[in-house]
Amino acid sequence: MSDHLGDGDTLLPDSAEYESDVDAKPPLLESRALRYTAIALAGVLLLSIVQAIAGTTELTSSGTWAAAIRLAVPIMLAGLGGLFSERAGVVNIGLEGMMIAGTWFGAWAGWELGPWYGVAFGIIGGAIFGLIHAIATVTFAVDHIVSGVAINILAAGVVRFLSVVVYDADSGGGATQSPRIQSQIGTFDVPLLSDAFNWIEDQAIFFISDLAGLFAGFTTKMSWVTLVALLIIPATWWLLWRTAWGLRLRSCGENPYAAESLGVRVLRMKYYGVVISGALAGLGGAYLVVVQAGIYREGMTAGRGFIGLAALIFGNWMPFGVAAGASVFGYADALSLRQGEAVHALLLVAAIALAILAVWSATRGKVTGAVIQGVAAVFFLVWYLLTDTVPTQVIAALPYLVTLLVLSLATQRLRMPAADGLRYRKGEAV
User: Fold this and answer.
1) How many CB atoms lie within 10 A of CB 305?
2) Would you give per-residue pLDDT tens digits along the chain (430 residues)?
3) Is CATH 1.10.3470 the right assignment for the domain spanning 56-327?
């Protein structure tokens, strides 16, 4: 291969990752796109079948899909932030803290200056804590996990202190919340498409209307910040896999000493990755206050930074995979906010999906996995048949249960960057 790292420098050609991802030919990309499209269509078809059996309309309604998008975006941004950091070789457990910083700075700037300033300052707040993490792990070689945990604790303490100092009861804020942001970022409908998809959804045609509901969720009353967040997904893929800068960054996460020998400024690239990671997590935090809540409340991130890490693993450290993982969580979270019947129907979805996975695993000779998946399928089927509702505690925990289930049963080949989390010192031989 001939991808250049710097002036006259080339990366060593014996890396399977680079061969598969950097030098991938268009037919391969097309086959992946077709495969993912087929999986998505099969998923919607499964939801349509279960919806018809259960007699509910919430599994595939445009309202559910729209809510799923809004709830998935902060997790997706945190996951993409983790992607930049870990592709540079730095584990970022501090994504939660960086999101917390984004919520506070986003709310403060949104209250004082306006919502778009809230978005910008949320990015800056997250980037500052990303810089702290980079100084600790890259410059001083602090254990990445220890530094990440410290970032989470530090961020929570700092925003509580700032709230006490800046806000008071007269302004509507206090130690645990900000004043409400008065103005909002607008939404938009995609001309023609929004009306068309909503009309098709109203016709109640099996599968067709359900599919239209999905597209209606993407084209109706979408926030401009949501659009920006969605555009970051292909932008991340292009930046990391189609530019020399991205190749240099990824080389630091695969073999930093080899990259160093070829002229890559490894320390600088690691700083770039971690600071960008913090900025994206901060954007996710700002999204929570500017788009969703309109106010900062202590604890409003609710572990979304950690779920972003789960989405990163689920997505095999790839941008579109991260988006898929975040979508799973967002969809489950959206259902938990709607009718209990929809959550009950999801038990049947889980039973059928696990049964299909069991058959597929059996055909590939994975007997143990097939047995586990088959037993789980029977469990969910019996649960569905013997009950009419799902306890409220289960509904509240549904997003987390679905995430754990998906991660535990994912049969994809996971491969983290080879040097992710390893200590690096400039000039040292391995």
Assistant:
1) 31
2) 334 454 434 443 333 444 444 444 445 455 667 777 888 899 899 999 999 998 888 899 999 999 999 999 999 999 999 999 999 999 999 999 999 999 999 999 999 999 999 999 999 999 999 999 999 999 999 999 999 999 999 999 999 999 999 998 767 888 899 999 988 898 999 999 999 999 999 999 999 999 999 999 999 999 999 999 999 999 999 999 999 999 999 999 999 999 999 999 999 999 999 999 999 999 999 999 999 999 999 999 999 999 999 899 888 899 998 998 899 889 888 887 776 778 889 889 989 988 998 898 899 888 887 898 899 899 999 999 999 888 867 766 766 776 666 666 655 567 889 999 988 888 775 5
3) yes
- Residue 354, C-beta contacts closer than 8 angstroms, at least 6 positions apart: 373, 374, 376, 377, 380, 409
Burial class of residue 206, CB neighbours in 10 A (0-12, 13-18, 19+): exposed
- Segment 370-374 long-range contacts (CB within 8 Å, at least 24 positions apart): 373/409
- Closest listed residue to residue 89, CA positions, set 245, 205, 256, 334: 256
Q: For residues 49 and 199, is the Cβ–Cβ distance under 8 A? A: no
Break the chain into its structural domains and give their ranges.
56-327, 339-412
Written as one letter, the residue type at 428 is E
- Which residues does 180 contact at the CB level (< 8 Å), separation at least 6? 111, 172, 294, 295
Q: 78, exposed or middle or buried, with CB in 10 Å at 0-12, 13-18, 19+?
A: buried
- CB 126, CB 197: distance < 8 Å: no
- Among residues 276, 319, 305, the alpha carbon closest in space to that of 134 is found at 276
Print the SS3 string covering 172-187.
CCCCCECCCCCCCCCE
Would you call 55 exposed, middle or buried from its count of C-beta atoms within 10 A (0-12, 13-18, 19+)? exposed
Question: What CA–CA distance (Å, rounded) separates 403 from 289?
Answer: 24
CB atoms within 10 A of CB 218: 18
Q: What is the C-alpha end-to-end distance of the chain, expressed in Å? A: 25
